[in-house]
Amino acid sequence: MRVTCRSLLFALLFFAQGVRAVSISGSWWNVANDIFATNSFVQVLWDSASGSMLPRAEHTAIWRYKPDQQTGYYAVMWHAPNTGSWDFGTYSYGTHPWPGTDCSVNGAGSGQTGTGSGGTFHCWEIAGIGGSNDYLSTPGVSPGVAISPGEWYVQIRRVRPKASGNCAGSWEHRFIPDYLNNPSFEIVQCGTIGAPAGGNPANYFGVSDWSTNSIGGSEETLYGVLRGVQMYDAYLSDADAGTEAGNQFSNSPLTAAGIASTWYMNQNPVPTDWTDKSGAGHNPTWGNANRPIQWDSTLAAPRWGIFGDNDMMLMKVGF
Fold this sequence. Notes:
By secondary structure, this protein is mainly β. It contains three helices and 17 strands.
């Protein structure tokens, strides 16, 4: 390793501001660029067939995601039947960007201006939970929130059964798309959970397995950078979820509730290693032979840098 005077000066300046210099690995889900057309169907999953799936009825999932600009639908995390067909029932639960001309909603919180596979403007959504719904906000809250491609997001997704209060007699689904910068905006929707159509339920990151286009790709892709994946088989409180969301590097939970319910953790997943680092043993499988591309210094933006709260300053320090 060769450390230059200039790189050392920059590193010292950032250290003086209390920011750590670290090596960040991750998976670059570049599935829209033609160079990676053969990798367009990329999916890492946990399913009932393998005997390992995050419980649909109650869970907390946290991840860090930098979406890149693409046209049409995205798919980040789903609970859905892994059958190749869309489930029009009440089982599926997705959290992703949604294409529309704006983030306006009706009284139920549903998006009103969908542009489908041709859309280039996107809003955060909860999808599914009772059919082909696209919820951009909590009922009575308007409008939804637009995404900013190229920015990092810390996202928290939760679900729990409710016996009283909001969603009494059904399940409360909650999604905070931008916890660090806009923690007060949360999409909250109620819904029952039916049997998965066709069986073989799964939870997964990446492409929606039912949405394959004519050239062998898929228009519902993650398309971006994903890291910091944490999953718990319980509903964490606001305080506990917030504390765990602040954990950027350790594969050990920070709260008692997190320790008691850890289901999967891998803060720095790479294409060759998505294994569960929590010790729970919930290792995923891949949808097929395709893999995401690991973003490193040979690509346009190096993965070595200074990583702060929600910013990645892609600066190559003396390498």
